[in-house]
Amino acid sequence: MVAVQRATSNVAMVQQHFGNTISRLLLPVDGAHAACCEEMSSAMSSAESAALRGLEQCIDTIMAEVDRLLAAEQKATDYRSPDDGNTPDHRPTVACTRVVAYLARILEAANSALEGLNKQAFMTELGNRLHKGLLNHWQRFTFSPSGGLRLKRDITEYTEFVRRFNAPAVDEKFELLGILANVFIVAPESLPTLFEGSPSIRKDALRFIQLRDDYKTAKIASRLSSLMIE
């Protein structure tokens, strides 16, 4: 990100120097000004593309570490009812707190190194990738009702954190995750009407419902057969 910041600053300096000095010197030369402007535009476009590729590679690296943290820290029992009869733990899971702590450091670096459209694009893409990564991650687990409540606690942590990205589209996606988690909490008979007001997440909801620990015993598939064929 620091490299992108420096490259962006250098590009701005070149553009300013061209506009203030070189451009005026070329005006008297027939055809030179137009040709140089065209070359300048092409060079700036190449520089912008290189900066975007750099940011994309940075996001790839960040998400690889997020995936590693989730795989290492998320336990199969995090979203299941306690076997020892103890009260369920509704604090954020260790995996969630570790990921948020890591991303907080990334956010601090991004705020220092990026600005303007580069920062906006970076934070939006990172938020979208995080959302997708979490959805894929959670599909590896089975959820009890108390586990669904703990998942909602994790989602609350993630949602509050990504608000610092200042990316409204990302905020909306994470807020919908909180609604999605309700599939693990409500009684089986309430599932068919749960998403009547949120059709945009019904596809994800139908996948997540199958992760309920009572999916087979409560014969949930038969309750949702009409929704699955729509």
Note down, in words, how this protein is organized:
The structure is a single chain. The protein has one domain (2-228). The model has no long low-confidence stretch (mean pLDDT 84). Helix 4 (116-138) runs parallel beside helix 6. It contains 9 helices and no strands. The protein is 68% helix and 0% strand. The chain has 230 residues and is an all-alpha fold. The protein is elongated and about 85 Å long. The chain has helices at 2-26, 32-73, 94-113, 116-138, 145-162, 168-180, 202-209, 220-223, 225-228.
- What does the average pLDDT come to? 84
The number of distinct helices, counting runs of at least 4 residues, comes to 9
Beta-strand share of residues: under 5%
How far the N terminus sits from the C terminus, by CA atoms, comes to: 45 Å
Count of domain modules: 1
Q: Indicate the radius of gyration in whole angstroms.
A: 24 Å
Structural class of the secondary elements?
mainly alpha
Q: Note the quaternary state here.
A: single chain
Helix content: 55-70%
- Low-confidence spans: none
In short:
This protein is mostly helical. Helix content is 68%, strand content 0%. It has one domain (2-228).
Task: Throw out a few tags for this protein.
mainly alpha, 230 residues, elongated
Lay out the secondary structure.
Layout: H1 2-26, H2 32-73, H3 94-113, H4 116-138, H5 145-162, H6 168-180, H7 202-209, H8 220-223, H9 225-228
